[in-house]
């Protein structure tokens, strides 16, 4: 896109320590009675708990997100969502070890959707541990205008899973608050119901896409009985607090296919090997 061409290829580098406490707190929030120790392998997608983006109040927008500009382009569409991603796990990250991340703006695309103009930004991440490259990842971010108050959301076709859920999770406001804190995600749609309903026109608090992906990756690891080598996910519809989230897994051509389903709507699809 002409307006954001200067952002293509932009690189950001960060470092961190894989603090065991963050991963253990998330596992406890998800009901796992496990206490991982230094040198244990980090569970799949728990690397999202690190490399915090620390911003002062002056650097934070009204929605709780960092103000536009900087590493990501200053796109004017008000609603920002994590639409999906693809990951390859080359080696485990281990608790207690130093890590680094190199991020690159790979693509910026403009599309016309049912609800208006959509801007897609694809960010590539390379995450390194002491022994070299551990994770290659692409994240798809989408920006869109807010829904007009009272306008019906585009209907999603009803989804009928072929098998019963392997697990059902209650994404209550406490879990959403904990995940927001652990990922330093201050987007108000996840913990401020008045804002989510009154400003962004959602029917309630929104379940984080990365949290849904983490739940599906945990299920895939359990079903496959081995650490993941590849994981891909795509958000299909919002999920909301206060409604059970059913997780489904079926054997696929190259591994396992996964779905998150809420009230008859498939909110996320994923595959893993």
- Named at the architecture level, the CATH assignment is Roll
The arrangement of helices and strands along the chain is EHEEEEEHHHEEEE
Give the termini separation. 35 Å
How many individual domains?
1
Helix content: 10-25%
Could you name the CATH topology? Answer: Thiol Ester Dehydrase, Chain A
Instruction: Please give the radius of gyration in angstroms.
Output: 18 Å
- CATH C-level name: Alpha Beta
Give the DSSP E fraction (strand runs of 2 or more residues).
25-35%
What would you note in describing this structure?
It is a single chain. The protein has four helices and ten strands; from the N terminus they run E-H-E-E-E-E-E-H-H-H-E-E-E-E. It has 273 residues and is α+β, with helices and mostly antiparallel strands. The protein has one domain: Hotdog Thioesterase (Thiol Ester Dehydrase, Chain A, Roll), CATH 3.10.129.10. The protein has a ten-stranded antiparallel β-sheet, with helices on one face. A hairpin with a 2-residue loop joins strand 3 and strand 4. Helix 1 runs antiparallel to helix 2. The chain starts with 10 loop residues before the first strand and ends with a strand.
């Amino acid at each position: 896109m002409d307006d954001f061409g200067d952002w293509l290829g932009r690189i950001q580098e960060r470092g961190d320590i894989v603090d065991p406490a963050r991963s253990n707190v998330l596992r406890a929030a998800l009901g796992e009675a496990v206490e991982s120790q230094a040198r244990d392998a980090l569970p799949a997608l728990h690397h999202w708990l690190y490399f915090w983006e620390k911003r002062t109040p002056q650097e934070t927008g009204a929605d709780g997100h960092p103000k536009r500009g900087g590493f990501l382009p200053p796109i004017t569409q008000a609603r920002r969502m994590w639409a999906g991603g693809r990951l390859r796990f080359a080696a485990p990250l281990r608790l207690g070890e130093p890590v680094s991340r190199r991020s690159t703006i790979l693509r910026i695309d403009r599309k016309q959707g049912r609800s208006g103009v959509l801007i897609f930004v694809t960010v590539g991440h390379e995450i390194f541990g002491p022994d070299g490259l551990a994770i290659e990842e692409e994240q798809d971010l989408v920006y869109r205008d807010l829904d007009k108050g009272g306008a019906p959301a585009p209907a999603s076709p009803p989804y009928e899973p072929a098998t019963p859920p392997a697990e059902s999770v209650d994404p209550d406001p406490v879990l959403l608050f904990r995940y927001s804190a652990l990922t330093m995600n201050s987007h108000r749609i996840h913990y401020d119901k008045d804002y989510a309903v009154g400003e962004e026109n959602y029917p309630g608090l929104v379940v984080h896409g990365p949290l849904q992906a983490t739940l599906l990756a945990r299920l895939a690891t359990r079903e496959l009985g081995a650490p993941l080598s590849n994981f891909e996910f795509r958000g299909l519809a919002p999920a909301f607090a206060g409604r059970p989230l059913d997780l489904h897994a079926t054997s696929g051509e190259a591994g396992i296919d996964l779905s998150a389903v809420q009230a008859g709507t498939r909110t996320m699809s994923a595959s893993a090997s």
